[in-house]
Specification:
It contains 11 helices and no strands. By secondary structure, it is mostly helical. The chain has 2 domains: 117 residues; 107 residues. The longest helix is centred in the last third of the chain and has 30 residues. It starts with 14 loop residues before the first helix and ends with a helix.
Length: 280
């Protein structure tokens, strides 16, 4: 598999499948302590599944993110008007769809990178979310104006065309990439303490693995993918809660974001179990 498909040639899925992916993404940081890691971790992902996973995530973004709705929320923040609880949830779901597709590009594309403009948009959506949660007016304005440019009609068209023309990797290429990610994770957790950026790097690897198995289990019944998804989601949730604390501490001035700190015991034990059992 060496070339991307042209617009209109990606597989499309019924609303029920998209809803299943939405439900999976919505709990990608929920801690289910009772779901065990499979004894054997299976890495196989046929090229048909690779195409389906990319197609599904692309449709999940295209059908679920309306440019006008995103700009409405951004403009409200730029006017210094607070978002309602429903609007905050709407923003969260928009960002979640961006993150899902960005992970999908990193996983399945030939380059294993997200497109520059799409990646930049996803990052700034995260910065804007942190800014309005923390009441950082300057960061809200900076991020908001950047997003207005990135979501302008010409840039939106460029991004969509690029997403539709993504070149996908082979099964062997995907497995090699996955192994490299887990080797990086294994190396990272040899440290005893983690600065903020190191903690964030570890969590990004975990989050992408959650996304991988969430998409697979959405395509059809798959007990292995479900168990992997829920085990990894627990790590993601534990690290996510800690990351929120780190952001809050940094914003309040109580603790610098990059002050080294150890991982919580439960987080470390789960990460160690994952890398020990992963077939490298």
């Amino acid at each position: 598999m060496t070339s991307g498909r042209r617009a209109g040639q990606w597989q499309t899925f019924p609303a029920e499948t998209l809803r299943r992916l939405f439900d999976a993404v919505d709990v990608n940081d929920a801690v289910d302590a009772h779901v065990p890691l499979p004894e054997t971790i299976v890495l196989a992902c046929p090229e048909e599944s690779i195409q389906q996973c990319y197609s599904l995530s692309l449709q999940f973004w295209k059908d679920g993110v309306v440019r006008a709705d995103a700009l409405r929320l951004i403009d409200k923040l730029l006017r210094n008007e607070g978002l309602s609880a429903d609007e905050r949830l709407e923003f969260k779901h928009i960002r979640a769809r961006y993150k899902q597709l960005r992970f999908t590009q990193r996983l399945y594309s030939k380059r294993h990178r997200s497109d520059y403009l799409f990646d930049k948009t996803t990052r700034i959506l995260g910065k804007l979310q942190d800014a309005f949660r923390g009441g950082q007016r300057g960061d809200i304005v900076r991020s908001g104006f950047k997003l207005r440019v990135l979501m302008s009609k010409p840039v939106w068209w460029i991004i969509q065309r690029s997403l539709e023309n993504t070149r996908l990797d082979s099964e062997a290429g995907l497995i090699a990439f996955q192994k490299a990610e887990i080797r990086a994770l294994k190396q990272a957790i040899t440290g005893t303490t983690f600065a903020g950026h190191e903690f964030h790097t570890v969590r990004k690897i975990v989050s992408m693995q959650v996304s991988f198995y969430d998409t697979l289990r959405t395509l059809g019944p798959n007990d292995h993918a479900y168990r992997m998804s829920r085990f990894l989601a627990a790590i993601n949730g534990l690290m996510g809660s800690r990351h929120d604390e780190m952001i809050a501490e940094a914003l309040s001035g109580r603790r610098h974001y990059d002050t080294p700190a150890p991982l919580a015991n439960e987080t470390r034990s789960r990460l160690e179990m994952l890398v020990d059992r992963y077939p490298l």
